[in-house]
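Q: Structure tokens for this one, please.
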Amino acid sequence: MQTRMSATGVARADDYSAAMPDTDLLFMPAAKAAALIRAKELSPVEYIDAVLSAIERAQPKLNCFATVMADEARRDAKAAEKAVMDGAKLGPLHGIPISIKDLVDVAGVHTRHGSAIFEDNVATTDDVVVQRLRAAGAIVIGKATSPEFGVKGLTDGPSFGITRNPWNLERTPGGSSGGSAAAVAAGLGPLSLGTDGAGSIRGPASCSGLVGLKATLGAVPFDLGRDAFANNIYAGPLSRTITDAAVMHGVLVGPSDKDPWSLSSSQRPLSPKLIGDDLSSVRIAYYELTANPRVAADVRSNTRAALAAWEEMGAEIDESPIDVDWIEYEGRILYQANFAVFCEQYLPKWQNQMDPVLLAFMDRGSKFSLSDFRKAQYARTVLFRTIQRVFDQYDFIVTPTNSRTALDVTHDAANDEVVVDGVKCGITRQGWTSYQYPFNLTGHPAVAVPSGFGKDGLPTSVQIVGKWGAEADILRMGALLEQTRPWAQHRPDKFLES
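A: Here is the predicted structure, written as tokens:
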């Protein structure tokens, strides 16, 4: 590529975009942008300026940022550019803009947890995963919105309003990492750090046409866990490509002395079965339904197209694998009771300013007994062992990621039933996102990858679940699908033109 060099010797973003539209720069994969920065063909300063300008235009429509760190990002971009010119050793994400979900601490910046309760809470230190991203050269551009304490599968709340999906502004980008998903889908930085406590990375990825990775329990430390030993919450990437997710995951992994699961965590090497594109030795267990009664016809069709692509490469697909009790009821006990106990302290002062969905879940959770809770914990162990039995016979579990495309932004996650092809199917965790939470509870790695578009023009997604520690394998399966059925070229054009 021929570019006009600036006075400092680094190509400016406007030089680069002279050969392509501005949107191509914004939608460039992180891996490619990092390579251009290393080659002095793209200036981190001008790249960050382009992204911040795009955020300024998009934020009033999407409301996907809780905080925009423009001054800090420009400062860090200047330091990143100097490092390039000085010939310093550069990390894999050097100069790459990234947003951080508002549940994760960034030093000197508000961590509001999507709540009025923490309106004045300023973090004093970076969380361990933010430290690792910065060490890899990433530039933090802002905090992405989250519903209060990450409680639900949509992203809205009394303290900040509604976050919208760039594919259709009347739909949700999912939750609880919805701000992260909306930002990446709209080209406001190629990467975002989300968290996933019941599908909160994979669900937004599904709604927004992205890759969303939930790693194996302990692979990426979660220092925020209030109950580290019973943890089912994970930090991980949202991106537009498998490569970007893999690079970011590689930056995040490793032990932390605050997370006991991380201290003995290890990653499996890529399975020899996946070295090439011949999948003749690969067996896939396909579950079209889990705890949900229905899946939309367009989601089913796109999921089966993904299965057919792997089958064409030689994979064996089994549609009648081992029966699994997906413990929807017991999972609900664990989820709602935890919120009831954790948030009880805030009710006397803050109840009138808290999310009604959170309050409804707390109320339901408070009605479960200690016996109910312990039985639910036992059921979690049974589910884990059942999934281990599945992996005795199969290499992967594949499901849809959501049962249908993104819900309307007005959907009440506590009370409204999810409608799938005209049929009411229960509230969100029963009728929409039921494929996701089981693997938070078992700890197995799972990645959501785009599978196409629904009849309403919104993205659909397939979930690939792997053996314990097998992130490399599920990412490889995603890469093979991406190669056969590419998706990153699609952009939310109506939003971009509006």
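A few notes: Residues 370-393 form the longest helix (24 residues). The domain at 13-497 is CATH 3.90.1300.10 (Amidase signature (AS) enzymes).
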